[in-house]
Amino acid sequence: MKLNPILDQLGAYPIAMIQERAHTLASQGVNVIDFSIGDPREPTPQFIPDALKAAVPEVSQYPLTGGRTELRESIASYLGRRFGVDIDPGTQVMPTSGSKEAVFSSPLAFIDRDADQSVVYGSPGYPIYERGALFAGAQVDPITLSGDFVLRAGDGSDEQWSRARMVWICTPHNPTGAVTSPTELADLVERARDSDTLLMSDECYADVYEEDAHPGGPGSVLQHAGPGAEGVLAFFSCSKRSGMTGYRSGAMVGDADAIAALKRLRTATGTASPDFVQMAAAAAWGDDAHAAERRAIFAKKRATLRPAFESLGMKVVASTAGLYMWVSVADDLAATDQLLEAGIVVSPGRFFGGGGEGYLRLALVPTVAECEQAVSAIKEALS
Question: Which domain covers residue 378, as residue numbers?
């Protein structure tokens, strides 16, 4: 069968291969603890499914692409509480079916495939930045990160920035948990505007952080974009904040002209969350207490696992926010294999692009009890 050559070029999603091996081990009776995919196991707070059930109508009809007013207002209110920004829910908010599809499809609205445009992103990073860019017809131009794994305005040449139609940043960063400082965010906004480049900020993990390391939480690019957020879009998600990965609900927020273009695109593709999911999301964005409770649970998981690696002389890099731990090892493929044989499933850093070699990513998805159980297996496998 003839396929889109990009599909063949990209091949299988790399983490799927690790998952297949893990499933084989589990079928053989091995007790498997899976840190590979960011899908937390804590129950969704009860008020969220209650809101969903209450919103299921007798007659099912198509949802509006632009989203329900209640949801857009709830998102704007959350952003005001969390970041102190004034967002117009009518023109600056676009609800999405999770963040992954939004990240993937957004380049389709902005890339001119005949204009030799590129998409810039930090590597290692979320693989969907690359995949969405390629399917939209853009060139990809990753900037290799190291050290603290923060993409800064000074990274990349003037030529890279001028050629880029969009630049992706991620804070807290997937896969490393690094956080971009307020000064660095402001510098990125300035450089993007100087080069007429859209700045796309993936902030899906904004409410998952260690409070001692980040009092008040990591900042948002929206705090530095000014009124109207010209040339800036931020991406948010209910998945980790509220334990709603299966609900598929997120949002794009920022430049009203960009939001209008995305609405036109999404109307053409028929992409919109069901109304009852939107009402559940509106309830979730309207409550901060449950997010704080979940944040404390993830911090406990980090505190349980970090000493296991440090006792082996392995440095845990960044990893004070987001859903992940980023651990320095001699050989990420070999360490992944050693842990997998012991029933511990992790992702080798190179799966997230150049610059990830020599690191492991652990998604903090097993329960606290499972993390405690994993400690001895980690020590035994890697010692």
Answer: 5-43+290-382
